[in-house]
Amino acid sequence: MVKIKCLIIDDEPLAQRVIEKFIEDTPTLELVGKCKNAIEAMQFLDEAEVDLMFLDVNMPKLSGTNFLKTLKNPPFVILTTAYSEYAIEGYELDVIDFLKKPFSFERFLKAINKVHERLHEKHKDKAGPVLPPVADNRRQEEEFIFVKSNKKSYKINYSDLYYVEALGDYIKIYTSEKVIITYSSMKGIEAALPVGKFMRIHKSFIINISKIKTIEGNEVELMNRKLPIGSNYKQDFLSSIHSA
């Protein structure tokens, strides 16, 4: 079962613990991080995958709603606060639900059901994942994949594929000849690419290892562009490179 990856953003330790316990008790949820303010959350979102944020409204320096306004492609959001007057502003920002503290587990589950409904609505009119599911023992002898874009199927040779970049609900595939934008998740394209040839270096980037020009600090250079190496991916990436 694919779980919804959750991030808690709240400056109150007790509030964090309550939500954490509710997440633990919900089989479809997985806690991937906790942040005590918006600044920490910005960095976390830049480096890790998050499907759902439990976002406190009242936080020091930057409020939850103002933080949400700064995000270009935010995850789903459930606002949490003791003050109900923020509810209208929250819904104007297209949040999933508004939980007024203190809230019960039953009310928490009601909000989670709305997340599931939104996920269903998001995908029901889509043609489905562009790339077919690939087993873990994917065939390494294949040297290409097919992706759909603008009602066409493009054959992309691995040797021509430099890197993949996340773009909201879409991805951008950079090849030696063109850039192809297609509807897919990063998880989907990562599963379709052969292990050992391609590697995730950041929440937003998958690279062709053979195309690397240089590695310096927290950046990889390829195709005349420097891409960031996320802290959550750096150790595995460097270990893989140095053991090759």
| CATH third-tier fold name of the largest domain | Rossmann fold
Number of DSSP E strands: 15
Helix content: 25-40%
Question: How many discrete domains?
Answer: 2
* Biggest sheet details: 5 strands, parallel
Shape: elongated
Radius of gyration: 20 Å
Helix-strand string: EHEHEHEHEHEEEEEHEEEEEH
Class inferred from helices and paired strands:
alpha/beta
Strand order of the largest sheet: 2-1-3-4-5
Tally of individual helices: 7
CATH superfamily of the largest domain, called what? Answer: Response regulator
Q: How far do the termini sit from each other?
A: 33 Å
How would you characterize the overall build of this protein?
The structure is a single chain. With 244 residues, this protein is an alpha/beta fold. The protein folds into two domains: 4-124, Rossmann fold, CATH 3.40.50; 144-243, OB fold (Dihydrolipoamide Acetyltransferase, E2P), CATH 2.40.50. The protein is 31% helix and 32% strand. The protein is built from seven helices and 15 strands. The protein has helices at residues 13-24, 38-47, 64-70, 87-92, 105-124, 186-192, 231-243, and strands spanning 4-9, 29-35, 52-56, 76-81, 97-100, 144-149, 152-157, 161-167, 170-175, 179-183, 198-202, 205-208, 214-216, 219-222, 225-228. The protein is elongated, with a radius of gyration of 20 Å. The model is unreliable at 125-141 (pLDDT under 50).
